[in-house]
Amino acid sequence: MDPIASYAGGASGARAAAKAGSAIVVVDAFRASTTIAVLISKRARVIPVASIEEAASTPVDFRAGERGSEKVTGFDFGNSPTEILEAEIPPGSTIALSTTNGTRIMEAAARAPYILAGSFVNATAIADALSNGFAGERVTVVGCGWEERRASEDEAAAGAILRRLEERGARLDGRARHVVDAYLSRPVERLRSNSAARRLRRLGYERDLDLCLAEDIVPVVPLMLDGAFVEGRNRPASMCEISGLRAASKSRNSS
User: What is the pTM of this model?
Assistant: First the structure.
């Protein structure tokens, strides 16, 4: 039977979907889901934690995180996918990641049978994985939002994933249909001028916007397993793909 695909928002939406037994895709387009995808492409293992204190005390190889979009003092990295893309992170490394919104929603989804991290950068890979066994009878795409408010970039990225699920036979409920229609009718480039994009630009993260808005450039499936995200298809991105991603990011920054 083709799955029913739904959309929900925030921690309450994630908890309700998990309680209902739905597979969950957590979408934090600017930037946690994108950062996780990049880390998975580098063959890393990512432990999402809600608090800075927990991230600081967890025994890992690296710590990454932000509050208010700015890097946490003392951590190895911020929540910047381009910073992490260019960093030397050995394959097999474990990273603790704590962010303002995304990792908190991931914690709220903890009881779901499957938890994936999705965004524009891996929308097709996520839809393919869900269509090939992860979804079961129901999948809920959860937009994280910003400090309990809706975020247009998360709803648009959710729409990208839901649209691809529909193309693979999923049945959309009413709210998911609305999110897909909005994604199809509004150019993704308009997200460069929303409040989240302006905040990132003000802090010097223009290049992160370029990467976060690129569809299907990081073809990985971050799947939660034993408290950490790993590659859900057992096929991490090749070094050739990673090199191509770096080149594409630099090309967009120079244009």
Answer: 0.90
Q: Say yes or no to pLDDT of 130 above 60.
A: yes
pLDDT in tens, 57-89: 999 999 999 998 899 999 999 999 999 999 999
Look at 43-57, 63-77, 95-109, 236-250 and tell me which has the smallest mean pLDDT: 236-250
Query: Please, is 204 exposed, middle or buried when counting C-beta atoms within 10 Å of its C-beta (0-12, 13-18, 19+)?
Result: exposed
Q: What is the C-alpha to C-alpha distance for residues 82 and 251, in angstroms, rounded to an integer?
A: 13
Residue 132 DSSP SS3:
helix
> Distance (Å, rounded) from C-alpha 122 to C-alpha 237?
12
Q: Which of 70, 85, 100 lies closest to 36 in space, CA to CA?
A: 85
Identify any residues that bridge with 231 across adjacent strands, giving them in sequence order. 222
Q: Calculate mean pLDDT across residues 50-61.
A: 93
Which residues are within 8 A (CB) of 137 and not within 5 positions of it... i.e. 6 or more apart? Answer: 1, 3, 4
Q: Residue 34 carries which DSSP code?
A: H
**Reduced to 3 states, what is the DSSP secondary structure of residue 65?**
strand
pLDDT for 248 equals: 52
Cα–Cα distance measured from residue 185 to residue 202, given in angstroms and rounded to the nearest whole number: 28
Predicted confidence band of residue 242 (pLDDT cuts 50, 70, 90): very low
Q: What are the φ/ψ torsions at residue 15 (nearest 5 degrees)?
A: -65, -40
DSSP 134: I
Q: CA-CA distances (angstroms) from residue 241 to 128, 238, 248?
A: 19, 5, 10
Domain boundaries, the chain: 4-163+171-254
Instruction: State which fold the 4-163+171-254 domain adopts.
Output: putative 2-phosphosulfolactate phosphatase (3.90.1560)
| Residue matched to tokens 């790993």 | 230
Q: Is 63 helix (H, G, I), strand (E, B) or coil?
A: strand
